[in-house]
Amino acid sequence: MASIHLQNIVKRYGGFVGVQNMSLDIADEEFLVLLGPSGCGKTTTMRMIAGLEEPTEGQIVIGGEVVNDIDARDRDVAMVFQGYALYPNMSIYENIRFPLRMRGIPASEHDARIRKAAEMVELGSFLDRKPGALSGGQRQRAALARAVVRQPQVFLMDEPLSNLDAKLRQSMRVQIKHMQRQLKVTTVYVTHDQIEAMTLADRIVIMNKGAIQQVGTPDEIYSDPANTFVAGFIGSPPMNLIQGTARDGRFTAPGISVPCPRFVHGQVTLGVRPEDCHVGGDNLQGQVYGVEPTGDVTYLTVLGGTNKIEVKAARDYRSDIDVAIGIAFDPAHLYFFDESGQRIRGAA
Amino acid sequence: MATARKSRGESRILRYLILGTWALVCLLPILWFLSIGFRPRTEVITPEPIYWPTFSLDAWRLLLSDWPIAKYLLNSVLAVGGSVVISLILGIPAAYALSRYEFRWREDIGFYILSTRMMAPAIVAVPIFFLFRSMGLLDTIWALMLIYAAVNLSLVIWIIRSYMLDIPKELEDAARTDGASDLRILWEIIIPACLPGIITAAVIAAIFAINEFLFTLLIASTANAYTMSVALANFTGGSDGIIYNAIALVSFIAFVPILILVILIQKHLSRGLTMGAVKG
Ligand SMILES: Nc1ncnc2c1ncn2[C@@H]1O[C@H](COP(=O)(O)OP(=O)(O)OP(=O)(O)O)[C@@H](O)[C@H]1O
Ligand SMILES: [Mg+2]
């Protein structure tokens, strides 16, 4: 129902830069996921969109209207807070009802809406309790219900599922996505969970130290990382990053030798995903450092020179440690980054 | 194991012994003046020890017939109650502003408010007397309400503020994004969340007000505005000499409401008095 534009947003706390020069266009009805390490400015960005924090510089536009000077209560944004922020003196029922009362929604609609929201987060039987009498995960779901009970212009969700067990998280994830598609509300979602990011997002924004590293669809982020930060952040286990030298169409590092495009030369970093490494071959010659069977796949760590390379091996792969081993890298999926960490792309 | 339990048992007995002795030391004066209050006047001042005191309601009779104790009690209740209401009405919004809004001199204003508590009341006694005289409020309960509220306001603000500081800011942020105005946030979120602090502040203010003496003496000159604390003092100076048994009784009557208050809020009180020392 509303697009969001951030134009050169800067947030400074005294001398500390929380968010630096952030520009981002979020389309109407888009599901955007913010991903990044702790302290990179995700919450700060959300709070600025919500109107709880004023940007030091830059403009925020929601639904075509500059909202910098519009108070949080008039922005029609619903937020799930990282710390839940449930009203301790009210029952869960009253908590979920609060935004309905404040937004002047007719009292006759309240009950049905509250029950529907509570049903969605599977809290139907806890409505009479005070937040203090709920577990962490139940509180988190109550906070989610309070946000989705009305239909705002924008949903902001700050790690709304971080405290749930894997099963519940999976089912909530599907429900959130379904609801977002149904209500068609522009959503900004923060998570540390890559699966969540990959499955929910129309586009993902990767942030680090207050700056956007890359914006793209989950596929783009995964298969076309813009720099070593994104490459090393996405994937589990993340991409192997190996420093070495490229000369005359060949990249070498201790124990490693692979062909590379001719425009790659000098001190560079090679990136290769564990799933693009295969046992048997001679791109990497090293010793088995460790073998970790997980059930559906076996993680193999190979020591080549001083580098430890992660390899996703077949489910039934087993080996003793310190055995000599050769690994092949899939030549179609090699990434090269320059000394500053930026991706080296073709046609240079 | 057995010895450990035994020594723990012993230390428990020791603990109760010490605490019991101390309780007796504290309670003895109260029991003493209670017993004085139920004995005839002559027996109270005799120098010889009396092992079997005579029971007498003389003091009661004196109190109820010659002395408008009901009026004094009523004055106390009205003045104290009114002052508590005034200081809460002024103190809660002030505490909210001092705990939440960012503005210049915020800390200085907070400190200034507290500093009003630091000077001896006697310093301002004379100006206050003239102030109330020119307002025509001398010898009225209204003046007492105002002065008690003024004296207690700083304390009330600081106690409530310390509780408000403990309320996470996200709570207000949530209410704001949910669409609540500042006044609504104060009324529906903040006040309920720091209710224990407000109760503590109210009770502490009430206790200070009940005991207030100097300003009451200054302002009250007749039964119009005499409160228990001043009436009690005047009681000693009658033409009949010092009536110990009646004084004891009055003291007891003045003391009981405070005792009840303290028992009621004991749990909150310790938190209120140690506020700022430990957060949470
Ligand atoms: N009020 C503040 N004053 C000073 N610095 C702040 C303030 N709020 C946030 N910061 C700083 O800004 C940076 C970004 O904080 P933010 O809360 O946005 O991180 P985040 O990405 O949400 O992290 P997390 O994943 O741990 O929640 C942090 O380094 C934080 O210390
Ligand atoms: Mg955060």
**Most extensive interface between two protein chains, with residue counts:** A-B, 26 and 18 residues
The order of strands across the largest sheet of chain A is 6-7-8-3-9-10
The CATH class of the largest domain in chain A, by name, is Alpha Beta
CATH class descriptor of chain B: Mainly Alpha
| Proportion of residues in helical segments of chain A | 10-25%
**What's the shape of chain A?**
globular
Largest sheet of chain B: none
End-to-end C-alpha gap of chain B: 37 Å
Secondary structure tally, helices of chain A: 8
Poorly predicted runs of chain A: none
Give a quick summary of the entry.
Chain A is of the alpha+beta class and 348 residues long. Chain A has helices spanning 42-50, 92-102, 107-120, 136-148, 166-183, 194-200, 218-223, 228-233, and strands at 4-13, 16-26, 31-35, 57-62, 65-66, 77-80, 154-158, 186-191, 203-208, 211-216, 240-247, 250-253, 256-259, 266-272, 277-293, 298-304, 307-313, 324-329, 335-337.
Characterization of the model:
The complex is a heterodimer of chains A (about 350) and B (about 280). Chain A has helices at about 40-50, 90-100, 105-120, 135-150, 165-185, 195-200, 220-225, 230-235; strands at about 5-15, 15-25, 30-35, 55-60, 65, 75-80, 155-160, 185-190, 205-210, 210-215, 240-245, 250-255, 255-260, 265-270, 275-295, 300-305, 305-315, 325-330, 335. Chain A has about 350 residues and is of the alpha+beta class. The longest helix of chain A has 18 residues, at about 165-185. The relative contact order of chain A is 0.11. By secondary structure, chain B is mainly alpha-helical. Chain B has a single domain, classed as MetI-like (MetI-like fold). Chain B has 13 helices and no strands. The two termini of chain B are about 35 Å apart. Adenosine-5'-triphosphate binds next to strand 2 and helix 1 of chain A.
